[in-house]
Amino acid sequence: MAAPNPDRKLRCKGCGQYVPRSEMWRVGSVSAICSPQCATKQDKSAKRRAERLQSTLQRPSSNHSGVTQVVVDLVHLRDGGRCRYCGGSDDTHLHHVEYRSEGGPHEDWNLITLCAKHHDFVHANKARWQHVLKWTLIAQYTQGMYFTAPEVERILLRENLR
User: Fold this and answer.
1) Per-residue b or e along 90-122, where b marks 16 or more CB atoms closer than 10 Å to that residue's CB
2) How do residues 95-118 score in pLDDT, each as one tens digit?
3) Enclosing domain of residue 80
4) What is the DSSP string of 71-86?
5) Model pTM?
6) What is the C-alpha to C-alpha distance for residues 25 and 34, in angstroms, rounded to an integer?
7) Distance (Å, rounded) from C-alpha 154 to C-alpha 152?
8) DSSP-derived pairing of the beta strands 111-115 and 92-96
């Protein structure tokens, strides 16, 4: 999977200015803003998400080795703090879709939230689930659609893309 171009400019949903992708803040699954202050111009729910994001930036970094706290928070916001396999919110972990050992970066587009049970399950069945998790994120970033990994697997099987 090719990495998104960080130099591509996107339009801020708050102020309407075009800003390089690398400087944008993700708000929800589709919207992007150039700063937390711009979220207040968009709507009340975006304002709340921006306030939450601002407060998380002041937290100390977590134990996710090599992943910055900002990226951790962006992934948790995007996934709603829930496992992208079962939807559970207990004991969630970040999983690198392209494994770190295989050169996968610590970027939000390469990370997905999984509960401990399904994180272990995905690692035990890497050949089957790595492809499905990639398509789960592709569907979200390109179509703005939130799917769980089993839903994506059913779609891939139905369309003979597996």
Assistant:
1) eebbbbbbbeeeeeeebbbbbbbbbbeebbeeb
2) 998 888 888 888 888 899 999 999
3) 67-162
4) HHHHHHHHHTTS-TTT
5) 0.57
6) 6
7) 5
8) antiparallel
What residues pair up with 31 in beta bridges, in sequence order?
Answer: 27
Q: What is the pLDDT of residues 21-64, one digit of tens each?
A: 777 666 555 566 666 666 555 555 656 666 666 555 544 444 55
> Strand runs (DSSP E) across 25-108, as ranges?
25-27, 31-33, 92-96
Sign of the Cα torsion 118, 119, 120, 125 reads positive
Residues 78 and 112 in one domain: yes
| 138 vs 5, residue with greater confidence | 138
Which of 15, 38, 58 is the last residue before a domain boundary? 58
What pLDDT does residue 113 have? 92
